[in-house]
Amino acid sequence: MTTSTAPAIPTPSNDVANSLSDMLLPVVRSPMLDRDEELFAYELVFYRQGAGTDADTTLSGGIVSGITDGAITRLVRGNRAFMRVSRSLLLEQTDILAHTPRLGVIIDPFQVRDAALVQRLQQLTLRNCPLMLDLGDVDPAACEPHGPLEPLLRLARYVRIDAKALDADTLTARATQLYERGLGVIAGNVDDHLTYGRCKNLSFQAIQGRYLLVPQQIEVPVLTPNRLSLLRLMGALQESHAGPVELGEIIRDDAVLSYKLLGCVNSAYFALPRQLKSIQQAAIFFGLARMRNWINTMALSSMDDRPPELLRAALIRAHMCEKLAHGMPTEQQDMAFMAGLLSLLDTLLCAPMEFVLSHLPLAPEIREALVEERGPFAPLLEQIYAWEAGDLRTNHMQPQNIRKMAGAYFSATQWADQVYSFAEQRAN
User: Fold this and answer.
1) How far is it, in rounded angstroms, from Cα 122 to Cα 194?
2) Could you give the CA distance from residue 200 to residue 99 in angstroms, rounded to a whole number?
3) What would the pLDDT profile of 373-403 be if each residue is shown by its tens digit?
4) Which end of the chain is less congested by CB atoms within 10 angstroms, N or C?
5) Is residue 340 part of a domain?
6) pTM score > 0.85 for this model?
7) Distances from the Cα of 84 to the Cα of 104, 134, 160, 253, 278, angstroms
8) Counting Cβ atoms within 10 Å, is residue 139 exposed (0-12), middle (13-18) or buried (19+)?
9) Burial of 137 (0-12, 13-18, 19+ CB in 10 A)
10) Considering 167, 183, 213, which residue would you say is the last residue of a domain?
C-alpha cells in the first residue's frame, strides 16, 4: 500500500506554518557571494506595486512589520542583509533599523544632496547600522577627498559598483581605489560568466548578479564520476516499477544520504505524528512519487562542489513550482516539483540541459518544460523566472497573483533553508 493523505511535501509544524503568513511582501533575496562562493550577504529586493505615495507607504509599513515581527530575519536566516528603503522610513524609523545590526541600508549618490537624510544616516552609522553606497557607474573622480560624494563615502562601510557597465580597466581601477580607502567593495550586475571572470580576481569582497543561475557555455561537456553517479541515482529513482522496498534498496548503500533524509523528514520543523525509521516506512507514509522527490532533493543538495546558494535556488524553485501547481492532479503536482528542481540542473552540473536530461528517464511533460519551454509546467516556471528577476509586468503578475507568489516564495525559502541545513550535515 503506497497511497497516503500526506501533503506532497512534508509541511511545517503549526507554529512555523503560521509564521509563513507574516511575510507577504513582494520580495526576493539576492545573494552576494565571497571569493569562496559562500554567502556574504543578501540584498532584499522589494517590488513596488503601483506608483505614488500610497504604494510607498504600504511598502514601508510592510518592511517595518517584517523587521519587528522577525519575518525578515527568518527570510535571510539571520545573515547580513541590505535593502533600499524610502526616505520617510529612514527619517522616521531610525530606531528600528539601528536595533537590527545585521540589517543594512543601501543608499544612492543623489542622496548626498539631502541634508536631513545625511544627518539621519550619520546617526545610523553611529549606532552601527551598516550602509552600502550603490555607486553604479559613477566616475571615481567624484569619490576624491572633498568631492561631492565624500560625505556618503565617509559614512559607508561598503560600496557597490556596476561591473556590467564598466570596461575591464575601469573596473580594476575603481575596485582598487575604493578598496584602498578601506571600503568593502561589491561587484554588482554580474549577470554573465564573462563579467564574473573579470571580477573574481579583483579586490571585491563579494560578487552579486544573475551569473549564478546561468549555465556556463561548454563546448565539450564532461560529467565527473560524482555527477554521473548522481544522475544514475536520479535515473534509478524514475523507474516506474520501484516500490517502497526498491526505493530503500536504491539508496541502501548511501548511509549518509539515508541519514540526512530521515533526519530532515523527522525534524521538529515538519512535526510528523510518528518517527519514520527507514526509507521504506517513509515511502509508505508519503507515497512513492513524493519520496522520489525527497531523495532527488537531498541528493542534489548534497553536492559539495557547487555554491550553496545555487543549490538553495533549485530547492526554492521546486517548492514554488509545486505550490503554483495546486489545482492540478496530484501526479502533476509531483512532476511540477521535479520540473522546478531540475530547472537549474544544467547550471549545477555545468553541462547543457539536453545533454544532462539525456541521462534521465523523465516524464515528457518535464522534458518539454525544461528544453522546449512548453507544456503544463512551462507557465509555472515562467512565473518563477519573472519573480526572481523582479519582472512584475508580465501578464501573470496581477495583484492577487503577486500576493500568491509572495507567499509561495517566502514559504519556499523557509522550506529550502531547512532542507539544505540537513543536506550539509555529515553522518556520525
Assistant:
1) 38
2) 34
3) 999 999 999 999 999 988 776 655 666 788 8
4) C
5) yes
6) yes
7) 9, 10, 13, 49, 47
8) exposed
9) middle
10) 213
Range of the domain at 390: 220-423
| Residues forming a β-bridge with 132 | 106, 158
Taking Cα atoms as reference points, which of 376, 375, 338 lies closest to residue 357?
Answer: 338
Dist CA 340 CA 213 (whole Å) = 13
Q: Which amino acid is at 398?
A: Q
Same-domain pairing of 303 and 410: yes
Coil, helix or strand for 105?
strand
How many domains is the chain partitioned into structurally? 2
Rounded (to 5) percent helix, strand, coil in the chain: 55, 10, 35
**What span, in angstroms and rounded, lies between the C-alpha atoms of 20 and 345?**
28
The answer to whether residue 161 is domain-embedded is yes
| Average pLDDT rounded to a whole number, residues 59-81 | 89
Cell numbers describing residue 236 = 534509478
- Compute the distance between CA of residue 222 and CA of residue 171 in angstroms, rounded to an integer: 33
Helix (H, G, I), strand (E, B) or coil at 27: strand
How far does Cα 421 stand from its chain's mean position?
14
